[in-house]
Amino acid sequence: MKILLVEDDRRASDYLTKGLRELGHAVEQAFDGETGRMTALAGGFDVLILDRMLPKLDGLEIVKALRNAGSTVPILILSALDEVDERVQGLRAGGDDYLAKPYHLEELAARIDALARRQGDAARSGRLKVADLELDTRARKVTRAGRKIELTAREFQLLEFLMRHTGQVVTRTMILEGVWDYHFDPKTNVIDVHISRLRQAIDKGHDVQLLHTIRGAGYTLTDDP
Fold this sequence. Notes:
It is built from eight helices and eleven strands. The chain is an alpha/beta fold. The strands form three sheets. A five-stranded parallel sheet has the order 2-1-3-4-5, sandwiched between helices. A four-stranded antiparallel sheet has the order 6-7-8-9.
């Protein structure tokens, strides 16, 4: 896998680059936002790992520039800023995943593998899959164990959002921003209602439950309890 790493801390960048190369990845480094933007726009990368705070050009501006240019390269944002609002900003700008510093190399490697895998699957067929649950983004069709599941437009959007973040805990704020695309009162029960309906639709009658509530944190879609 060819990876572009944009990180201004050279020591951290060299450490991460060494680790990723030992895992068999080809890594190109950039140490400021402007260089990172130009290199990323040139294309040819499977994944972009991007520091949130960079000299010359902020990391989120790089993300926006890529998305405005039509780039679909998966982007993992690294940041010491771990507040919910910061994560939401990163995802709304067009990032695909967000990892707070300090992080473990093993987790970062697993996340970029997952991003590349989902990108490849989506590019090939427009399909998302978790266990025996499948979502076809083109046909707007959802099945589980081969049985068609009828969803409203909003439930479909919610499920697609969760499936694009498979195995990750997504907060209520992330869901509100990513699915409804504007701010709600975080205490509203709109998420609870839609999560409940979605759980009934995809999990009822199945031994393996896929949609889980992480108390005090949010929700996750996974076949690994």
